[in-house]
Amino acid sequence: MMQMIHTTPRRSKKRKPTAKQRELSDSWEKLLKKYATKTVAKPKQQLSDVYSLGKPACRETPKIPSLPFTGEPCLKKANPVYTGTAIKGIGTMHNSNSVPVFSNEEAIAIAKTCEDAALKTDARITNSEGASVSTGTGFFAYSNSHGFTGGYSSSRHGVSCSVIAESGGSMQRDYWYSTARAAEDLQSAVDIGTAAGERTVRRLNAKKIKTCQVPVLFEAPLASGLISTLISAISGGNLYRKSSFLLDSLGKQIASPLLNIYEDPFIKKGLASSPFDNEGVATKARQLVQDGVLQGYVLSSYSARKLGMKTTGNAGGNHNLMIRPGANDFAGLLKQMGTGLVVTELLGHGMNMVTGDYSRGAAGFWVENGMIVHPVEEITIASNMVDMLKMITAIGNDVLVQGSKQVGSILIERMTVAAD
Fold first, then answer.
1. What is the rounded CA–CA span in Å between residue 408 and residue 220?
2. I need a labelling partner for 140 at 20 to 30 A (CA). Which of 74, 87, 216, 419 fits?
3. Confidence of residue 15 (pLDDT cuts 50, 70, 90)
4. What's the CA gap between 199 and 195, in Å, rounded?
5. What is the rounded CA–CA span in Å between residue 365 and residue 343?
6. What is the rounded CA–CA span in Å between residue 110 and residue 250?
7. How far is CA 280 from each of CA 59, 185, 277, 314, rounded to the nearest angstrom?
């Protein structure tokens, strides 16, 4: 069992530290001194140098390699300890000369620009819940009694906006945000505000629909939630407690052949990049799901021991997950769906992890002949995750990067939509 070393000794007993403990303590002190924050005088940056208020940022979606599956489960062996060979180049934090840090004045200017853009989108936008700008840096350090001591710096920046629109007695709110390791990779303040305004206005004057069974399209921001549910089902904690709808599924077909998930902890500036996990175990890139077949679980050393397997370097959660996109963009997915429901908001937590039963309150848009007809609200969508994963008929190339999961919109062949 891994144990954290505390620098403050217990008061009840005063024991002389062993040679190994002194060695670990010295390593810890050297690590902290190496990464100690130093104040460096540098010329004040202009707002225009730090952040683009009008030009959208561009991202490249990494290509997802295809790895063969051997069908053999991990065997119980000693945990691979991180050696320091993979930490270079993942860009969890830039050096002090390349990371723009917002001053209070700059952050206020960005927030005002974002909010103004949202308010100017449409005259029906009557109020604002505000725009926010966040910037932060940190350092993660870990040491244990197995002889591991390591750490790395990280940074994260974000801009968000939320507004309210009214029309004919109908009132709606929506939001948009952007987050990135480097401030220059953020979506522009104008684009964020405009997106928040447009997403809010389009929800006005929702209409009722009848209960039916139709295809359901989860837009990209919500599609990541489906992937999160899948990851929870193959995580060690739920597996050894027998509280997963995907028990004993390793090497089996758990989803549509269209679903391919690749975990890569080493994406430069990835929001979930890490050279080692929360136990000091080296991370590695791997195929989690290939053509719908489950290739591996998500395990810490504790859950791995409970299952008689080997840790996968996932203590603390999954790393960057890339879901291989299909050929269609969002408009193409609408045409492929024909008639059905686009889901843009989910309410409640109606997911049974043991049985896979899925039932959530929802809002979105009704689609006919591949075109959005009108917004809908006060509906419930229901199915079972086992069936939903196997009924994935398309994954869009409208990949959104707002967290650890990089995925486009996901089209499910059929779900029950309960309305009036």
1. 5
2. 74
3. low
4. 6
5. 7
6. 48
7. 30, 29, 5, 10
